[in-house]
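User: structure tokens for this one?
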Amino acid sequence: MKRAQNTFLEFFAGGGMARLGLGRSWRCLLANDLDPVKCAAYAANFGKSDLVEGDIAALSLDDMPKERADLAWGSFPCQDLSLAGARGGMSAARSGAFFPFWSLMEGLVSQGCGPRIIAIENVAGLLTSNGGRDFACVAECLAGAGYAVTAAVIDARYFTPQSRPRLFILGFAPDLAPPAADRPPKEDMAPPALLAAQEALPVSAKARWFWLASAPRAGRNMRLSEIIDWDAPEWHAPEQTQKLIAMMAPHQRARIDKLIEHGARRAGAAFRRTRQENGETVQRVEARFDGLAGCLRTPAGGSSRQIVFAIENGEVRSRLLNPREAARLMGLPDDYRLPQSANAALKLAGDGVCVSVVAWLAETVFEPVLGAAKTRSAA
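Assistant:
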């Protein structure tokens, strides 16, 4: 007998990157986002039948599907928590969207149809915002609703050529048996900030805490040079490239000279940054040539756009990272329909969750746990 598809709710859905990561073996019961441009992209790629466009605070339990979901995914806005943002904490308006989300989860639990798994994704800054109280709040919410709680910091670099560490907080309903361990996984999944935040949890939340036994293996088999468009038309004039190189620190300029000397074909990525040096404010271009791009940001300002440097045949070229390249860094396939506006496409990518990380969680954590539970209930 064919096993029924796993089901999910996707909140703060953006362009549907969690849905893509879960794959075709999962069935969407409801997706919700406030941003009309992201909703248009979602509809263009997945259709409108499951999508509810609008403020999550306007949703009620009457809007929720009657069927119990296997998973509720929530990537709530991170601008108030990210190191690149203002760090207003969860009391700020955007990240305060967590509370309407949680109100829906509590309501579903009270009706006896709480999601079997709740997955909350955000920046690692959630661990330290408001002195760790924001993280404790999320953990307490899950534990208080009867969920076993764990968290891990997972970097997209395991899967795509982008350095993008993100915090994943997972709650498992009492009828599930997640892959638990007595001690933390390897260090980069449980960095000091997570260890400190977990240690500081209230007794009630700590009593329902476990460490995730699974850890991603180094599965990335591509470098930045393999996802950029070498034949793209929008390269800077040579004078602009030299101006950018002149803004690098001496050791980075020396690195470029060495790559040219060795005839390497290499792609690098860089951001413009403002630094204090010898009591003066200076503009720097900070580049990396380790095969990874830096963490994608939303294009709120000129300095947030990542610069690509391409070294080939003894020459250096530069330009801004384009939307399709940003999408590839997030694990989106080339047939994914991006918004027409470059800024809108970059915002969709920069705000999203890495598709490949969601796929790993689905394959190694969610699906085995749910499958075992359904087998037990059928026995």
